[in-house]
Amino acid sequence: EIVLTQSPGTLSLSLGEKATLSCRASQSVSSTFLAWYQQKPGQAPRLLMYGASGRATGIPDRFSVSGSGTDFTLTISRLEPEDFAVYYCQHFGSSPPHTFGQGTKLEIK
Amino acid sequence: EVQLVESGGVLVQPGGSLRLSCAASGFTFSTYSMNWVRQAPGKGLEWVSFISYSSRTIHYADSVKGRFTISRDNAKNLLYLQMNSLRAEDTAIYYCARDVSPYGDYPLLNYWGQGTLVTVSS
Fold first, then answer.
1. Is A81 helix (H, G, I), strand (E, B) or coil?
2. In B44-67, which positions are buried (b, 16+ CB within 10 angstroms) versus exposed (e)?
């Protein structure tokens, strides 16, 4: 079973700053099967990014992803007020379990 | 507009059973694989189960295997989760979620319902 570990647990940044969120897998995974979700309080999660560079519908280009093997990163280039939320990475390969990381909370400093 | 509406969440005693439903609309339900994902209060997301568009492929998380059963009725646009032998640790908001692409084999989830709360307590 692939375990995804996200860091940091909480990230405190100011508007306009760059956010770098990490997702580390317990074994090598293809970036093709790595996704990122955003969840705001009281709302369902929303798909942000998937694969090597796929961006879900309506997601602005300040969001980007990178990484390979066991280390993956979600970058938000310039934080906007609506970006403060909890972010989850997910491995969604064809074999279960389809694990989520434990999440990173991005809060306003 | 794609809509997923879960129902069936209630307070149930440990050891009890419950069936959740998810009513889908706004897309051709029979061509999309579906999933259940849960979130315990104040905790992160946990994928629970996957069912392919044809019901031919079904997956479960180890934590629910043997206790939960996913199914679907493509004629009625409904997804189900039968939950048996419920435990306190099954307490969570249960979301149904749709795959990004039709005929998909894996849970990349771009549409989610608002969830239904299941509380397991005596």
1. helix
2. ebbbbbbbbbeeeeebbbeebeee
Kindly tell me if the per-residue pLDDT of A25 is higher than 80: yes
Integer Rg of chain B from CA: 13
Amino acid, single-letter form, for residue A56: A
CA distance A105 to A39: 9
Nearest Cα neighbor of A80 from A62, A101, A64 is A62
Q: What is the tens place of the pLDDT at every residue in A54-103? A: 999 999 999 999 999 999 999 999 999 999 999 999 999 878 888 999 99
Nearest by CB to residue B115, choosing from A44, A93, A94, is A44
- Res B113 pLDDT > 80: yes
Contacts of A45 in chain B (CB under 8 A): 37, 45, 95, 109, 112
Task: Please state, in angstroms and rounded to a whole number, the distance separating the CA atoms of residues B21 and B99.
Answer: 17
Distance CA B57, CA A86 (A): 31
Residues B20 and B79: their CA atoms lie apart, in Å, by 8
Is the distance from CB of B68 to CB of B82 less than 8 angstroms?
A: yes
> Can you count the helices (H) and strands (E) in chain B?
0, 11
Token duo for residue B118 = 């299941």
Pairing status of strand B11-12 against strand B116-120: parallel
